[in-house]
Amino acid sequence: KQEVTQIPAALSVPEGENLVLNCSFTDSAIYNLQWFRQDPGKGLTSLLLIQSSQREQTSGRLNASLDKSSGRSTLYIAASQPGDSATYLCAVKGGAQKLVFGQGTRLTINP
Amino acid sequence: EAGVVQSPRYKIIEKKQPVAFWCNPISGHNTLYWYLQNLGQGPELLIRYENEEAVDDSQLPKDRFSAERLKGVDSTLKIQPAELGDSAVYLCASSFGIAGGTLDEQFFGPGTRLTVL
User: Fold this and answer.
1) Contact A52, A63 (CB under 8 A)
2) How sure is the predictor about B103, in pLDDT bands with cuts at 50, 70 and 90?
3) Do A103 and B42 touch (CB under 8 A)?
4) What strand order describes the sheet that includes A19-25?
5) A103: left (phi > 0), else alpha (psi -120 to 50), else beta?
6) Pairwise pLDDT comparison (B116 vs B40), residue with the higher score
7) Closest to B45 (Cβ–Cβ): which among A4, A53, A98?
8) From A43, A97, A104, residue closest to B109, measured CB to CB
9) How far apart are CA B65 and CA B74, in angstroms?
10) Residue B89 in contact with residue B111, Cβ under 8 Å?
11) d(CA B63, CA B71)
C-alpha cells in the first residue's frame, strides 16, 4: 500500500527566503507526482505535475524534482512572498490510478 | 474556462438526516473523482468515474454512501443517514483522464464543508 509522507508538517520563514518542502513515498512504481496548494477553506490548486519519466518541472518561482528510485520529491520555492502562505500537498499516482496524498506542509511566510 | 463547480459550499445537518452534494466537472473531462478530506489530512479517494462507469469505489462506505453520474457529466454524492463522523470536506475533481496515461492532471473544486450535529 502506497504511503506518502510530508515533512515538516509546518514551516515558518521570513519573506524573501528560498525554501524546500519534502515529500517521500514508499512505492516507487508511480505514474506521476503532483504538487498542490490549498488555501484555508478552499479546494486544491494544482501547481506542478511530474511524469514518472521526468526529473523536474518548473513554473515561475516553483521547481519540483522527482527521484523515483529513492521515493522522494522536493518542491523548491524561490524568493518566498506572504502570498505563498498556504498548505502544500503532494500526491502520487500509482498502478490503481489513484492519487495518494500526503498530509501536507502548512507554510507561513512572515513579512 | 470554468473550473470544477460544487454545491452547496457549506451544509449543516443533524445526524441521521440525508444529505447530497453536486459536482459539475470541467467541460470535456471524462474522469470524475469524489474525495473526503478530514481536518489536517490529505484528501482520500471515495469513488472514481470514467464517463458513467464507477471504476473504483473500493473506499466508498456503501452502507450509507451512494453516488451517481448518469449522463457522464455531472455527479451527485449522497449520504443517508449521516453520522457525526461524516463531518468533513467533500471534494470533487476531474481530469481529461486517459486511463493509464501519465498526463492526468486533476483539477479540484472548492469543496463542500459538511457539519453533522
Assistant:
1) no
2) low
3) yes
4) A4-7, A19-25, A72-77, A62-67, A56-59
5) alpha
6) B116
7) A98
8) A43
9) 17
10) yes
11) 24
Distance CA B21, CA B36 (A): 12
Contact B102 A31 (CB under 8 A): yes
Report which DSSP code applies to B13: E
Q: Give the contacts of B27 (CB within 8 A, at least 6 positions apart).
A: B1, B2
CA angle, residues B6, B10, B11, in degrees to nearest 5: 110
pLDDT at position B33: 94
pLDDT tens, residue order, chain A (111 aa)? 899 999 999 999 999 999 999 999 999 999 899 999 999 888 899 999 998 999 999 999 999 999 999 999 999 999 999 999 999 999 999 876 788 999 999 999 999
Chain B residues at the A interface, defined by Cβ less than 8 Å, are 4, 6, 33, 40-45, 48, 55-56, 91, 93, 99-111, 113
pLDDT of residue B96: 85
Q: Is A15 exposed, middle or buried (0-12, 13-18, 19+ CB in 10 A)?
A: middle
For B75-85, what is each residue's pLDDT tens digit?
999 999 999 99
Output the nine-digit C-alpha cell for B35: 474525495
Position B1 confidence tier, pLDDT thresholds 50, 70, 90: low
Verify whether the Cβ–Cβ distance A53 to B102 is below 8 Å: yes
